[in-house]
Structure formats: C-alpha cells, structure tokens
Amino acid sequence: MTADLLVEMLREAGVEERGRVARRLSTLGDVPSILVRLLLRDAVEVSRPLLVDCATLGDADLVDCVRAATLEHRRLVALRRGVSEMVADALVESGQALVIEALLRNETAKLSHMALELIVAATRDNAHLIAPLLRRAELRPSHAYVMFWWADAQCRKTILQRFAVDRQVLQEAVSDIFSMAAEEGWQDPLSRKALQFIERRQRNRAAIAKSAFASLDEAVAAAANGLTRETAEEIAYLSGLKPMTAAKIFTDPGGEPLAILCKATGLPRVAIKALWRGLRRREADPSGGITPQLERVMEIFDTVAVDRAQTVLRYWNWSLSSAMTPALMKAIREGDEAAIDEYSAPQKAAMLALSREFGR
Question: So what's the pLDDT on residue 354?
C-alpha cells in the first residue's frame, strides 16, 4: 500500500525529488520491487545510487533494468559486485561492446557458458574485447583457439602461452587403447576422432606412398619457389590436415599459424621461411633485416612446444573441417546465427572462424 502510494507520488515528482528517494532507498535492506523497478528505469542520474550502492537488488529487478533502460544503466549494472550469471546473460545479450567490456573487467561477475560463446562471437567485430576476455578464468581453450583467427599479435601470443595445453596426461591414460583400436580397424568413429586428437604423431605417414613428394620436408622445400594449390594440398595431406584447415593457415594475414604448422609436424625452422617465401610475403625490411612480422612468427616457433602446437593444430583441423556439413556451410553463407544453438562445439567454431571466407 505504501509502495503503491510512493509510486504514484514519484510519477508526479521532479528528477531531484526522485533522486533523493533513490538515495534513501539505496541504504535500505528491503525495498518493494514495484518501487525499485520504477526507479531503475528512470533517468540514470536517478537510478545511479541504487545501481551503485544498493547491494540488495534482486536479479529479476536488475534484468528488468538491463532490458528496459539505457546503455549507461547497463554499464553500471555490469560494474556491480557479484553480478550473477542470469544478469550477465542479459547484459551480454544487449550486444553492446561497452557493456560487455565493463562486465569482462569485473572480476566478481560470473559468466555462463552461453555468455562466453556470445562474447567470443562479439570479439570478431570488437577486437578490443579479446584481451579482457583472455583474462577470464571461465574461458576454455576451445574458445581461445577460435578467437586466435581474428586476434592481434599480442593476443595470439597470450593464447598460445596460456591455452596450448599439454596432452601428456591424456596420452598416458589411454596408451593401451591405441593398440585396441588398431586391432579393431578403427571402426568406432567417436573413439577414432578422440584418439586422433591426442596421439603423438602429427604427420600422415601413409600419405607418402601416394604423394609426388618423398616427404613433407621435400614438399615444403618445393613450395619456396611458389606455393601452388597442388603443393598446398600435398602439404596439407602429408601434415594430416584437411584442405580447408591448410587453406585457412596459408591465407592467414598474421602468419603465426605457419609457425604452429611447422612446429607441430616436426619441420625445421627454415621451413617457415620457405613457406613465407612461397606465399610471396616480404622477408626483409628496407635496412636488410628480417621484417617484424616474420620475426614474430619465428619467435612463436621457438617458444611453443611441439605437443602444445599439435593440440592447437588438431583443434583447428577438427573444428574447421570435420565439423563442416552442407547445412553448416549454408548457415555460414547466409549468416544464420539464430540457429547456432543447433550446432555442436566444433561446428560453432567453424561458423565463427570461416564466416569471413564466405562473405559475411
């Protein structure tokens, strides 16, 4: 009754009076929801005391504010201590980069898996969100590997340092399963894919018998004279990669994926320069020294371990090629993000990473 009366009075009150009421209510422990929602939807100078100082606001009231108020309201909600997953989901769904950045920088906020996937997708067009997202404890390696494709050089380095995980524990745990699967002819597709992801060997040794080259090293050396489509496909085949994955690696403007490819397959350091030359990329600056871009790629090769490079390369191969179905390719071309929940994790990764190639 009192709350209803206050609501009617506030509808006739000026901004200054409404602000005084909001400041008074922000110190109370139990505030009627009908009154809170009215004030939270008010001008930001009125609602600010509640959003900043009132610790007892419920998630439902905050979500209502997020969906009904302005960008500044959402930013203030994102800065609140202990933002719940429910409220964070609503904030992320707004799609506003300023709000998402404030949320990411709030170390006390909790992010759901759905929110993380939406933010990863948002980073494609808002690159400044990548760095704060990489600092979140909730971020999974699979998310980081997808963002790698549009991250800048420093963020790519961070991804490789933090998320290129060691598979040794998994390899030791399933060492006996490899022989069992081989005896059965690798008939089970699920176990075959899982074991392929963690096995130590990267090169496709069976491919040598059908290749025009005696080894992967020979194919890469030939590529130095000009990387043709045929040679690129041979390198992909000998490296145990699908053509789509190799194409993504060779066309990447930064060049870091070349370092991952060479390290994962056991190629020597000079192989990077051979591929670089074959792609007609500049090797030397005007003073005759190595270009900063090539130097950065060589540094990646020198610092990442073989096993970790294989982890990254195999995830790319799994997500960019094995997941591609006619329906997914159609969705990527048409920008069908509304149907993204229908797809698996690798399919979602492919949708994000390959959307540029399909003109979206």
Answer: 54
